[in-house]
């Protein structure tokens, strides 16, 4: 563990330091603040609209009968 890395190991350690930068590590959820809340709210809206449309539309037999009389 305490063994020195040597020149090659030190070279690669310095090359990989950028991967541990605070701006790159697990910051994607902070990049878009409010995106999670917006996705949840939009999902609830879509489910609500789907349920409303299912309850408020007339049955298929009524709509098909009305469509056949108009032709």
UniProtKB/TrEMBL annotation:
Which Gene Ontology cellular component terms are annotated?
A: mitochondrial inner membrane
What's the domain of life for this entry? Eukaryota
Kindly give the Pfam families that the UniProt entry links to this protein.
Answer: NDUF_B12 (PF08122)
As for subcellular location, the record says: Mitochondrion inner membrane
Membrane-spanning ranges:
31-52
- Give the record's GO biological process terms: electron transport chain; mitochondrial respiratory chain complex I assembly
Question: How is the protein disposed in the membrane?
Answer: Single-pass membrane protein
Q: Does the keyword Ubl conjugation apply?
A: no
Keyword terms, alphabetized: Electron transport, Membrane, Mitochondrion, Mitochondrion inner membrane, Respiratory chain, Transmembrane, Transmembrane helix, Transport
Which family does the record assign? Belongs to the complex I NDUFB3 subunit family.
Cross-referenced PANTHER family, in alphabetical order? NADH DEHYDROGENASE [UBIQUINONE] 1 BETA SUBCOMPLEX SUBUNIT 3, NADH-UBIQUINONE OXIDOREDUCTASE B12 SUBUNIT
Describe its function: Accessory subunit of the mitochondrial membrane respiratory chain NADH dehydrogenase (Complex I), that is believed not to be involved in catalysis. Complex I functions in the transfer of electrons from NADH to the respiratory chain. The immediate electron acceptor for the enzyme is believed to be ubiquinone.
What protein name does the entry list?
NADH dehydrogenase [ubiquinone] 1 beta subcomplex subunit 3-B
Organism listed in the record = Solanum chilense (Tomato)
């Amino acid at each position: 563990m305490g063994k020195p890395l040597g020149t090659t190991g030190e070279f690669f350690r310095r090359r990989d330091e950028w991967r541990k930068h605070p701006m790159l590590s697990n910051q994607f959820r902070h990049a878009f603040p409010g995106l999670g809340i917006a996705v949840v709210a939009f999902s609830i809206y879509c489910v609500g609209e789907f349920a409303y449309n299912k309850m408020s539309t007339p049955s298929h037999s009524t709509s098909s009968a009305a469509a056949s009389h108009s032709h």
